[in-house]
Amino acid sequence: MKSPIRHALALVFTSSLGGCAPESARPADHRAVIQARVEASNAHDWDRWESLHDPAACRVSPELAEPLCGADVMRAAIEQLVVAFPDYHLEIVDLVDDGDRLVVQMHTTGTMNGPLLIGDAEIPANGRTIEQDWVAIVEFSEENLITGFSEYYDQYILMVQLGLAPEFGP
């Protein structure tokens, strides 16, 4: 029996593909690329991390005003994130794959022991920890390189954990 999250991921994923996958798909390879990306992130192996992306890859996420394009630009952003969260750690919770896309559910933890850059603002280190669940839709090239990484998460919860927004509710 599928978990409710896995079922929801499958519905989102198959809807985005129109219910069918191209014959040239290599889902098992996509899983390996995402696993290698997570391992490279956790090891701070930025050369390996960047090599898994097409040079023109783009990332979209809630904190970005516009897509972040270029594997080198994306690499610089993750390197800066790890300055803010030196113990930044990713785990794959679930994967739904088919065709040239993959949906991955991730769990992230970290402690803000360095300055965090958000746009033009620099937030000083505050020692607070984050724990976040998020989903990304990942697109791949024919060469099995990441071409698109669209992240979806609750930015408000993240800001509350960092002490940058008030907590509302019971």
Describe the model.
- The protein has a domain at 4-15 and 25-106 and 133-154: Nuclear Transport Factor 2, Chain: A (Roll), CATH 3.10.450.50.
- It is α+β, with helices and mostly antiparallel strands.
- The strands form two sheets. The chain has a six-stranded mixed β-sheet with strand order 2-1-8-7-4-3, sandwiched between helices.
- It is built from five helices and eight strands.
- The model is unreliable at 1-25 (pLDDT under 50).
- It has helices at residues 4-16, 27-43, 46-51, 71-84, 155-161; strands at residues 53-60, 68-69, 89-98, 101-111, 116-118, 121-123, 129-140, 146-152.
Our estimate of the beta-strand percent is: 25-35%
Would you identify the regions where 5 or more consecutive residues have pLDDT less than 50? 1-25
Query: How many beta-strand runs?
Result: 8
Q: Specify the structural class.
A: alpha+beta
Distance between the termini: 33 Å
Largest sheet: 6 strands, mixed
Give me the strand/helix succession: HHHEEHEEEEEEH
Please list the strands of the largest sheet in the order they lie side by side: 2-1-8-7-4-3
Q: Identify the CATH architecture of the domain at 4-15 and 25-106 and 133-154.
A: Roll
The name of the CATH topology of the domain at 4-15 and 25-106 and 133-154 is: Nuclear Transport Factor 2, Chain: A
Number of helices: 5
Q: Helical residue percent? A: 25-40%
Mean pLDDT: 86
The gross shape turns out to be: globular
CATH class of the domain at 4-15 and 25-106 and 133-154: Alpha Beta
CA radius of gyration is: 16 Å
